[in-house]
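ok here's DUF4309 domain-containing protein:
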Amino acid sequence: MKWKAFAVITACSLVFGATGGQVQWNEDTKTIAIISATQTKEAIPTNGEVKERDQKIIEKMNEIKKKLKLGLTKEEVQALFNEKFEITHNSDSENGSDSYWKYEYFKATDYQGESDTRIDVEGLMERKLGAFLYIEWKKNKLYMYSISYLNPKDHKVHLYMMGYDGKISDVLVSD
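and the structure:
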């Protein structure tokens, strides 16, 4: 490797390393790969990084994200999914939602979670539950939703959320 390429890699490594990204040199192709640390709307791991069950969970999450849009009616959402929803109750909601649904994906048949509305960290960590979709409704329209899941890359529970204002977040819930 020539000194200029080495200098570029070193400089990029320092900058991207400080922000969580990576710079890699491929000796065979003589190219530099820059890997960003920014979040994407897709689940983070790729096919080669996860087990089959984890891949199915990621695919289901991506399907949910693609299908759910704020403002859909209950009937429209029900038609999008084959799975049966459960009606839940949330007395803590302060955002104006008036009804709530939950979907539990890849749940062990003998598993019963603790709560209808709280993130089931234990169930997700123990892989008794694959993902938990929580939908909030306001005047029969999709108002906001969240998906709690175990990220197979870091083995921690995350919460993906589309807020009532359309903003998307994906935050770490467990350490």
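+1. Residues 64 and 81 are 9 Å apart (CA to CA).
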